[in-house]
């Protein structure tokens, strides 16, 4: 019988130390604004928002013909309607937004191509054929096969359309958000009125963002915030008549303090280092906020060998919890496994708070153990969330889509950077499968049941330490047998002494009784019920044996 062809394992990438966050953003509320302050902020935001919309449309029309000359021409036209620094912030934001849409267009093409290739593969198989490991089989019925063939034609047409747009340099951008735009047609489901939607839509399209500049007073000339919290704005040229301070500036009545990282922000503005600011309005709560952001100084990453000396904590990411285990430098799990739960249902703020809470508990445990690194998987489920690969298995698709890989990675890197703990990223290939095969059963006890996720965390930690996932390797050939051959000192087939029961020796079981005393004690009449029963059994056995 021919042996089955074994599928080769894919190449496993080496672990690496993930880089820290590139910037910092803090927020504080603009409390105590007067009606005049609110009126000025609304006027400035609406005016600059119209300029930003026109500049984005112009940038999209330029497409691939964009150059430094066209950028300079756009900025020159905006300067006459605002100011030089406002024009620089608008054109920079427009360029970033166009580039983000361009990258999203590329990812959409990749997803379409993956769906088309999967549909072609499944349509080429006979109806009802079962799939192999890692690849789905044919469709269940002829009706499903027909529907998928129609979907293949739709995806191919959509792919050609998007590819033509990308080659021509056209992108689809909505200032204010496409989701909010589509909400206009479903106001009842969103629980909003037309007036509420219109106010939120106009607020989202405002532009009140100013880039920082090192060397200038307090790090920003457009939106200036002094170390004591005074906020002032440089008004655009058409709105200069609203100024209440010198040089066309308007000073707000509100003060900011930045409770979080306030000392770090105050050091930057005192040294006149660049700080970017953004003013935005929360329509739902009716509050105004000020965001301050700056670039972090890139710190040198510690070598991987130095991080391995104190052991690591292997973390397995799941849809509703983090499974973690502490490993020593030799790859042995120590202590008890940990589980950090989170609930990713509800609003975005609730999900973000749940992630921060789980990561905070993880980092507190890491500090208590004294490790210098946390090992996580470098996950990417872009090829696993498509409906074409898993078909009707909606629960699995929802499970994979629910794992917060990108959000968790960003949160973990930023929080670890502040805690002084490094992050080691490992290849996620076979960690769950090999961890369950080699570690789940040996680590399970009657009082400590070990799940597949905890076994996977051990596999992740061992891979980050440079060890194999298997618990031990086979010994050398000389240790397996005598000189790589069969042993010569073997028992003969007739020698069965080693397989029989140990012969019974009459007398007490203690080894410290002399033979004479044992012989005398064996003939003594027992005085207990158990001893009488035992002596009667011995007598019967002697009688039977003749």
Q: Describe the sheet with the most strands.
A: 6 strands, mixed
Q: Which structural class do the helices and strands define?
A: alpha+beta
Helix content: 40-55%
Low-pLDDT regions: 1-5, 381-385, 531-546
**Which assembly state applies to the chains in this document?**
single chain
Radius of gyration: 36 Å
| Percent of sequence in beta strands | 5-15%
Description:
46% of the residues lie in helices and 14% in strands. The chain contains 18 helices and 13 strands. Strands 1-13-12-9-10-11 form a six-stranded mixed beta sheet. Helix 2 crosses helix 3, helix 3 packs antiparallel against helix 4 (142-168) and helix 10 packs across helix 13 (405-419). The chain is globular and about 115 Å long. The two termini are 60 Å apart.
Question: Secondary-structure blueprint of this entry?
Answer:
Blueprint: E1 16-17, E2 23-29, H1 35-62, H2 68-81, H3 84-124, H4 142-168, H5 178-183, H6 187-190, H7 194-204, E3 209-210, E4 223-225, E5 230-234, E6 249-255, H8 262-270, E7 276-282, E8 287-295, H9 304-308, E9 312-317, E10 321-327, E11 333-341, H10 348-369, E12 373-377, H11 387-390, H12 394-402, H13 405-419, E13 422-426, H14 431-443, H15 452-464, H16 477-480, H17 515-522, H18 529-544
Give the structure's gist in a few sentences.
With 546 residues, the chain is α+β, with helices and mostly antiparallel strands.
Protein traits:
546 residues; alpha+beta; six-stranded mixed beta sheet; four-stranded antiparallel beta sheet; 18 helices; 13 strands; 46% helix; globular; disordered N terminus; disordered C terminus
């Amino acid at each position: 019988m021919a042996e089955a062809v074994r599928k080769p394992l894919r190449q496993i990438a080496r672990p690496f130390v993930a880089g820290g966050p590139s910037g910092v953003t803090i927020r504080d509320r603009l409390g105590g604004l007067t009606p005049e302050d609110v009126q000025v902020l609304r006027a400035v935001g609406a005016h600059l928002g119209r300029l930003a919309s026109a500049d984005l449309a112009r940038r999209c029309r330029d497409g691939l013909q964009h150059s430094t000359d066209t950028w300079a021409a756009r900025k020159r036209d905006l300067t006459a309607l605002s100011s030089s620094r406002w024009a620089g912030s608008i054109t920079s934001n427009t360029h970033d937004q166009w580039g983000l849409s361009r990258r999203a267009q590329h990812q959409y093409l990749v997803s379409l191509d993956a769906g088309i290739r999967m549909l072609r593969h499944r349509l080429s198989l006979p109806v009802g054929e079962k799939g192999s490991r890692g690849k789905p089989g044919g469709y269940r019925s002829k009706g499903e096969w027909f529907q998928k063939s129609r979907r293949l034609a739709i995806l191919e047409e959509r792919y050609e359309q998007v590819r033509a747009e990308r080659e021509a340099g056209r992108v689809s951008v909505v200032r204010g958000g496409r989701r909010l735009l589509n909400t206009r047609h479903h106001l009842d489901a969103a629980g909003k009125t037309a007036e509420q939607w219109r106010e939120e839509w106009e607020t989202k399209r405002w532009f009140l963002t100013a880039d920082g500049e090192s060397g200038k007073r307090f790090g920003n000339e457009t939106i200036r915030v002094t170390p004591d919290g005074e906020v002032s704005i440089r008004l655009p040229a058409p709105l200069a008549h609203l100024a209440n301070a010198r040089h066309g500036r308007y000073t707000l009545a509100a003060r900011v303090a930045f409770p979080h990282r306030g000392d770090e922000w105050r050091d930057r503005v005192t040294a006149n280092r660049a700080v970017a600011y953004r003013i935005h309005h929360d329509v739902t709560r009716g509050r105004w906020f000020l965001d301050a952001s700056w670039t972090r100084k890139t710190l040198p990453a510690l070598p991987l060998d130095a991080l391995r000396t104190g052991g690591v904590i292997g973390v397995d990411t799941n849809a509703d919890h983090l499974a973690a285990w502490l490993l020593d430098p030799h790859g042995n799990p120590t202590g008890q496994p940990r589980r950090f739960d989170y609930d990713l249902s509800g609003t975005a703020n609730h999900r973000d708070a749940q992630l921060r809470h789980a990561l905070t508990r993880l980092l507190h445990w890491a500090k208590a153990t004294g490790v210098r690194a946390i090992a996580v998987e470098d996950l990417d489920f872009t090829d696993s969330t498509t409906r074409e690969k898993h078909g009707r298995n909606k629960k699995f698709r929802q499970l994979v889509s629910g794992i917060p890989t990108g959000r968790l990675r960003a949160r973990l890197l930023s929080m670890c950077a502040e805690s002084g703990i490094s992050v080691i990223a490992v290849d996620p290939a076979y960690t769950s499968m090999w961890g369950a095969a080699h570690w789940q059963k040996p680590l399970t006890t009657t009082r400590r049941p070990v799940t597949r996720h905890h076994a996977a965390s051990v596999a992740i930690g061992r891979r980050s330490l440079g060890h194999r996932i298997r618990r031990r390797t086979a010994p050398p050939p000389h240790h397996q047998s005598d000189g790589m051959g069969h042993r010569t000192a073997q028992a003969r087939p007739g020698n069965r002494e080693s397989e029989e029961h140990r012969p019974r020796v009459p007398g007490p079981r203690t080894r410290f009784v002399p033979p004479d005393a044992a012989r005398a004690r064996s003939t003594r009449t027992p005085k207990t019920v158990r001893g009488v029963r035992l002596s009667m059994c011995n007598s019967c056995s002697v009688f039977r044996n003749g």
